Write the structure tokens for this entry.
Amino acid sequence: MMIKKAWWKEAVGYQIYPRSFLDTNGDGIGDLNGIRAKLDYLKDLGIGFIWITPVYESPNVDNGYDISDYQRILSTFGTMEEFDLLLEEAHELGIKVIMDLVVNHTSSQHPWFLESRSSRKDDYRDYYIWADGQLDGPPNDWTSIFGGSAWEYDEATNQYYFHAFAKEQPDLNWENPRVKRDVFTMINWWLDKGVDGFRVDAISHIKKAPLETVTADDPFAPFKNVTGIENHLEELRDVFKQRDILTVGEANGVGANEAQQWVGTEAGYFNMLFEFDHISLWNKTEQEGLDVIQFKQALTAWQQALAHGKGWNALYMENHDIPRSVSSFGSEETVFWRASAKALALSFLLLQGTPFIYQGQEIGMTNMPFQSIDEIDAVDTRNFYYDMLQTGVAPEKALEIIRQTARDNSRTPMQWTAEEFAGFSKRQPWLKINPNKQSINVLDEQADPHSILNFYKEIIRLRRENEALIYGDYTLYLPEHPQLFVYGRRLGEERFVVLINLSKEFASADLPENVHIEDWELVLSNLTGRKIQQHTLFAPFEARVYHFRNE
Ligand code: GLC
Ligand code: CA
């Protein structure tokens, strides 16, 4: 089947975590005007749309993912007028704007919840999930994704409410048609404003199992991709379907076997998903190195499930919830840092799907050498740290684990320059700047033709200029090779092959029979200043792209 064309299949996305992008008014916190100021930078990089994480009114218990008013901009970030300007200026440059849609839960300060908790008889009571306690405890043993019980006791009405995340993030009750009606009205309000789509937060959690459900291996199973969710998602899809927008669901717990149901071309709920399979391979407490075979399997399962026009997907290696990919999957060591960041870029940007680059990834930003828990802001990480201490883990050990897993690793301010506050702000920002801003920053990388930044630009340009890299078939070669990730893209006569050594050691390979590298033209390589020795020998983290020469 031919793949149907769409703008959101051709564009490359860029995720902005506004708090850490650029501060223009000197309060140490990034803002909407900061995004406006960098639109040219994004245009130059080749970005077709931005996804902005929540900028709505919020008490910021979970940095904006606890929304108290869906239709207002948090004053720290700016005003609605500034948002409108941002939208207009982005559109003028041909950059679309995707908003974060957080509708699994609200803030406990949202007027709906304030009403809901005020009385059992309140008109808004059923906007949230309330239940009686059992004996002297919560309604059941379900635990929150952010640690502790998923139930919070509310004295005023002597009942518990459910929260999948922090206790200040009560879950909306999607079984209540009024909730859906209000949520859909809000969605249309933003679409009428002209935004180009949504990244739909935590959407696999909107359906809850019956409260009697006992948790087994996976403590979050009773509220993760639970049967019956399809009814809610179909209604949501019907709202989205009215417009030509990009929708990407965050889908923890959804496997490749369900890919077609969720993002199939005809009836899928979203255009694409952020799946968790490949990312969970390094979401471990201890650094174990990358299992290249498993990594290829995870990515390939999704590529194949959606191949030949069956559906589409989102491609990513980083976001605001996970540590920096170069630290987890590549290497921070000086000799490997640059090559490994480039190798990782090629391991997702040219697959079939819509790539999302997370701010700072394009310059190879790394994890933060946190010195103390006081330098951590993220609520889940703090809970996790203190839980570890309670169970007897030594503070040094707990900190070491945190250093590798904390979400704040990727939330440190964007490194624009080597200046004191990295060109991000005029004062000490809300989260400490990584000391490596001296060597890792936009300004220096712009000037260096071999920088990671310029390599990203080249890959994006290559993708834009070759339809085979967008709409072509995907083939995995050498699936059992423990170091190399080799894949092909093909559209009619147009053929590309991408070869990446994802290890710190030299790797050699017998190339697939139909890939005689001698007949191919090398179009991209991350070997700077060195010549390829032998076509079948790969230096640590060496990565190449070949194009088949049509004689
Ligand atoms: C998503 C967001 C994360 C947030 C959570 C709760 O996973 O990406 O940052 O904490 O949802 O809204
Ligand atoms: Ca600011």
